[in-house]
Amino acid sequence: MNRLRFGIIANTGKSRVGEVLPPFLQWLKKRGIPFVLASEIGSLFDISDYPQAPAAEVADSADLILSFGGDGTFLQTARLIAPREVPIIGVNLGGFGYLAEVGVSQLEKRILEILDDNYTIQQRCMLEAQIPRLESTSAAGSDNPDNIICYGLNDIIVDKGAFPHTIRLETFVDNVYLNTFNADGLIVATPTGSTGYSLSVGGPILEPSAEGIIIDPINPHMLANRPIVLDPQRVVKIRASGKMDKFQVAVDGQSIAFLPSGASVVIRRAPFVTRLAVFPDYDFYSLLRNKLHWRMEHE
């Protein structure tokens, strides 16, 4: 078997983490399988006997990351460790999971498959958002004095936030004018994100291995405003304006900044990918049928 070291990151807001992890850690220890825990897990139970590091540093000493929670936890883990490109496995603790596909009952079996090298790595493209650095910008990012750089696996969203009016979203592709969308917002999504918020506003489903950047208007005022799929090398610039004096930027469902009317956000493909560990029985089409409750009539 391979001598891999597992990094373990968990959503400490889920009480089930405190039920599932202790026996799993004992199982790993009994078999001599090395691992390192995110120290934040110590808020749920005593981990003083185990190797640990802050979640942001777990990938520095691990060959593969186990992300315990759901899709939201997986997305947060991806943003945290993607620059290091350490593979991730999502462990689903309940809920609607496209990314966190390993159930608790399968966990030990999957670990043994990994140690037997019975898995593959999928590369998922990410997006980079360049956001003006203002006092209302809350995200951690680069040290650039003028801009915050944030990364998302699913999508970057520019929207009206809680304000009860549509906004105007002047949109450029490679500095060439595309359209001004009068809408609640715009979603810029990856193929991975095509089954997330993008799907709920009528966007297309792309295979995770596909190449492309999706632009979806949210509740557009004109029915002629439709989703569009761009070449993955394109750079999208969105300048928002409207009756309110600020608009929201969100990355993978997390509010990042409120920017003044007239400010611009620049979105492009990130310089690195999320590496997702998948098993031989992984089937994207079966996953779609199950999650979307499509009818099964094939014999």
Strand order of the largest sheet: 3-2-1-4-5-6
> Which percent range fits the helix content?
10-25%
Secondary-structure content class = alpha/beta
Average pLDDT taken over every residue: 90
- How widely separated are the two ends? 39 Å
CATH class of the largest domain: Mainly Beta
Sheet-strand content, in percent, reads 35-45%
- Largest sheet: number of strands, sense, barrel closure: 6 strands, parallel
Quaternary arrangement of the chains shown? Answer: single chain
* CATH superfamily annotation of the largest domain: Probable inorganic polyphosphate/atp-NAD kinase, domain 2
- Low-pLDDT regions: none
- Helical segment count: 6
Report Rg: 20 Å
Note the main attributes of this structure.
18 strands; 6-stranded parallel β-sheet; 2 domains; single chain; 6-stranded antiparallel β-sheet; 17% helix; Rossmann fold; 299 residues; Tumour Suppressor Smad4
Notes on the structure:
This protein has six helices and 18 strands. By secondary structure, the protein is an alpha/beta fold. The chain folds into two domains: 128 residues, Rossmann fold (3-Layer(aba) Sandwich); 148 residues, Tumour Suppressor Smad4 (Sandwich). The chain has a six-stranded parallel β-sheet. Strands 8-7-18-15-10-11 form a six-stranded antiparallel β-sheet, with helices on one face. The protein has a six-stranded antiparallel β-sheet with strand order 14-13-12-9-16-17, with no helix packed on it. Strand 16 and strand 17 form a beta hairpin. The chain is globular and about 60 Å long.
